[in-house]
Design goal:
This protein has four helices and 15 strands. The chain has a seven-stranded antiparallel sheet with strand order 3-2-4-1-12-9-13, covered by helices on one side. The chain has a six-stranded antiparallel sheet with strand order 5-6-7-8-14-15. Strands 10-11 form a two-stranded antiparallel sheet. It has one domain: Aminohydrolase, N-terminal nucleophile (Ntn) domain (Glutamine Phosphoribosylpyrophosphate, subunit 1, domain 1, 4-Layer Sandwich), CATH 3.60.20. The mean pLDDT is about 95. The chain is of the alpha+beta class. It starts with 6 loop residues before the first strand and ends in a 5-residue tail after the last strand. A hairpin with a 4-residue loop joins strand 7 and strand 8.
């Protein structure tokens, strides 16, 4: 499997779900099946709160990653990231996902890509702590949204349109694949490579690409469950993953991509 740059993993569900199966395969890319040894992170929404775990070690060497595998956390929205450093030193402050507050709710963000000559205007409200282009882009996005809508959380359609507009501008500097969530919606922007799968009844078996592990989701779900998983590279080899078209921004809610009213 050819893996380039960082790896993204997202999950959006209609009922709180654990990400252990997907994360088990995904974590192998942090030094075993992929050369991504520059840190990792994973964030889980719980209501309006967030549990965030970061480590500058590779996932295959991280006791934190092992803890995540052994202690399922159920969530409606999860974002994980395995880093292959292109800009910024290997350090905890440069590990994704990044988190900020806006409009009284947390936003988490992870990016795959490399932005060249990206020098946005001086920040208004949000400042980067580390020295990655990813965190700088996240702060610039939030500044753009806050400047656009002020102190009030906007309706979904104009919010999505604004996220797409700023994403297109940032993409002019290089690949800008990202996952962004506020705990209710998952925004997924594809610049070069990103795919998703929606699992719902009737559930079947799934086999990981990165490890010889199979799970029968029919034994661990109900007929009402629906789970969308988004990843840089498909995590399973016996399911049909849908590629997101480069330049497209998808919004997931309740475990599926949604169509916005005009």
């Amino acid at each position: 499997m050819s893996i380039i740059m960082c790896q993204l993993l997202g999950m959006n569900c209609n009922v709180p779900t654990d990400i252990c199966f997907s994360f088990d395969g995904f974590s192998r890319r942090g030094g075993q099946t992929g050369d991504h040894r520059d840190g990792f992170g994973i964030a889980f929404f719980e209501g309006r709160g967030v549990k965030l775990f970061l480590d500058s070690k590779p996932t295959i060497e991280s006791s934190i990653a092992q803890h995540i595998k052994e202690n399922p956390i159920h969530s409606l929205n999860v974002i994980a990231h395995i880093r292959k450093a292109t800009k910024g030193k290997i350090a905890l402050e440069n590990c994704h996902p990044f988190i900020r507050e806006m409009w009284g709710r947390y936003w988490i963000f992870a990016h795959n890509g490399n932005l060249e000559s990206f020098e946005p205007t001086l920040p208004l409200h949000y400042h980067a702590v580390g020295d990655t282009d990813s965190e700088l882009a996240f702060c610039h996005m939030l500044d753009y949204l806050y400047d656009r809508f002020g102190s009030h959380y906007p309706p979904l359609r104009p919010l999505t349109d604004a996220i797409k507009e700023i994403s297109q501008k940032i993409s002019s500097h290089g690949p800008f694949n990202f996952l962004l969530s506020n705990g209710e919606f998952m925004f997924c922007h594809c610049s070069t490579k990103l795919s998703y799968i929606v699992r719902q009844a009737p559930f079947t078996h799934a086999h990981l690409v990165d490890e010889d592990v199979t799970v029968d989701f029919g034994l661990v779900t109900t007929t009402k469950d629906r789970v969308a998983v988004i990843a840089t590279e498909p995590l399973t080899d016996n399911e049909i993953w849908t590629p997101i078209v480069p330049g497209e921004l998808l919004v997931f809610n309740q475990g599926q991509p949604i169509t916005l009213d005009n």
